[in-house]
């Protein structure tokens, strides 16, 4: 055999071996957000609507607070303005968490940006503006992973031009595609996201009344998603075992009491959404030291 042939065969062998060995790592990377900071304990501290016990929820101060508290991920809620811009806000109505009135979806971005979304929480935050999703992603890029929850009110039947496609475009614009996980109670959004980009990590938000008695694993498989998000009250400890066996990350919300945090830590859930990331970090560290 001549030298060229031998070099070719050796090269092909090395290429395929590396490919096979790297496979599990690559597929894992595709289905879970890559964290910027992690203590490698395979447990995620997720700041629910930012550090929302100390700052007005879903605002830039709440997101900055979450980074300062060293949360590993920020969860935020996405709605759409009447002129089709994704904005960060939880409620369908403006009344409770801003000085506006009525449905958010009836206002243009320009109108929404004149609202005060801080003073309902404290005078200190009077004049705080509703963030656009772009502003939040730009801030998070290079700093902290995001769970982008698409609110049901923002979802339509259309695959193109809707909140999912626009949000995905923003994620890609800021190079955040490996550092986000999308989620929604509206399963149309999950299907749209996976059609638009099968590699983008997506979690199903569990709702007992819509689960048709399916187990978490069955639901995850049915919708072809990567992770399972569930409220503390609906979550059953035994689900954790099954999800773990199948390597399905599962994240539980919204937990601010240390006793509940410890209960979930002992069930080995993948992460907890909390309004108090500083407290969760403390409880998790203490729990891990005792283990
Ligand atoms: O994404 C977890 C949690 O935020 C879902 O409920 O109502 O707080 O958006 P909600
Ligand atoms: Mg939410």
UniProtKB/TrEMBL annotation:
InterPro entries: GP_PDE_dom, PLC-like_Pdiesterase_TIM-brl
Segments forming domain GP-PDE: 43-284
Domain of life: Bacteria
Name the UniProt record assigns to this protein: GP-PDE domain-containing protein
Native species: Fodinibius salicampi
